[in-house]
Amino acid sequence: MEFLGDLGYLGLFLGSFLAATIVPFSSDFLIVGALIAGADHSLALISATAGNWLGGLTSYYIGRAGKWEWIEKWFRIKEETLLKQKERVDKYGALLALFTWLPFVGDVMAVALGFYRANFYKSAVYMLIGKALRYIFWILLYRSLGQGVLDFSFL
After folding, report:
1. Which of 4, 26, 33, 137 can bridge 15 by disulfide, Cβ–Cβ 3.0-4.6 Å?
2. Which of 15-19, 25-29, 83-87 has the least mean pLDDT?
């Protein structure tokens, strides 16, 4: 993923997009790397959020298309996993989109929201809010810890 860093904000956008779809990695490292490299905080926030949001919307639309071949091929989500999400989608609906940034389950949530036809506009807005808050957290953490953010751990 080093080549993404060479592309600047476009690389941050593309990496964040891919992280929200088919490539299994965290875009958190990309935004921290961009900040350490001297990226403008506002532009990094916009680039990462836009890419990750559009990637999440892509996942939503793949779920909405409802083609199991696509879902299993590109997201490696089994039908049983998606069916387990149905209860949550029925209960919370588009609010689940606030959590599509979460590792491992976020992509499944985005696909499930589309598959079970959660309101697109509400899902899109909540998804944008959740993803933006994630990057705001990392930017604030970087502002407070500097490169020490690399030592940060939730454990």
Report:
1. 4
2. 83-87
How would DSSP label each residue in 87-135?
Answer: HHHHHHGGGGGGGTTSTTHHHHHHHHHHHTT--HHHHHHHHHHHHHHHH
Q: By three-state DSSP, how is residue 66 classified? A: coil
CA distances from 124 to 10, 88, 103, 119 (A): 22, 17, 18, 9
Give CA–CA dist 95/48, Å, rounded. Answer: 21
Structure tokens at 35: 């900040």
Of the candidates 77, 71, 116, 73, which has an alpha carbon nearest to the alpha carbon of residue 97? 116
pLDDT single digits (tens) 74-125: 777 777 877 777 887 888 999 999 999 998 788 889 988 999 999 999 999 9
Query: What is the pLDDT at residue 155?
Result: 39
For residue 24, give the 3-state DSSP assignment.
Answer: coil
Map out the domains of the chain as residue ranges.
2-151
Instruction: Say how far apart CA 137 and CA 135 lie, in whole Å.
Output: 5
